[in-house]
Each structure stands twice: as structure tokens, then as C-alpha cells.
Write a structure and sequence with these properties.
Layout lengths: L1 E2 L5 H17 L4 E5 L11 H10 L8 E6 L9 E6 L6
Parallel strand pairs: 1-2
Antiparallel strand pairs: 2-4, 3-4
Helix pairs in contact: 1-2
Length: about 90
Amino acid sequence: RIDLHGMTRQAAHGALANYIHRAADRGLRCIIVITGKGSAGGEAGVLRREVPHWLNQPDLRPRIVSFVQAQPRHGGAGALYVLLRRRRDG
């Protein structure tokens, strides 16, 4: 699990990329990415909007099978489950 909420956009992007690469290299298959839900004023948070775009970028997409909104007990609209591809050895 990685908690990005409260980070700047730039810091969050770097942290997410590093975390996904490390998790995939370790053979993890599912991770939780916490983005936060955004401000109380009803506007969706910047990270909540940006993270799905980052997950589809060429540097990360080859490591990812899919991603979906998390269940309420894991953060609901403020979190994503990210399913990673199996590591290929050799």
C-alpha cells in the first residue's frame, strides 16, 4: 500500500512510479494506492484525477493488468486496487 494523499503532484508521481516498479520486481500482484478524496468542497482531488492517467503512461502500463476503485473498507473513492502483471523470470 502506498499513501499519496497530501503529496504534491510531482512527489506523488515519482513515489507511485518507484513503488510500482519495486512491487512488480518483488513479485507482488495487487497493491492499494491511496489518493485521498479531495477537498471537502466537493471537488475531486488532483491526485484522484491524475493517478489513473499516470497508471496508463508508457513507463507504468506494461507492469499493470488493471486498476479499479477500492472497496469502502480500503478507502473507497479515495483509493485504487492496482493489479500487477506476473513477473517473468528468465
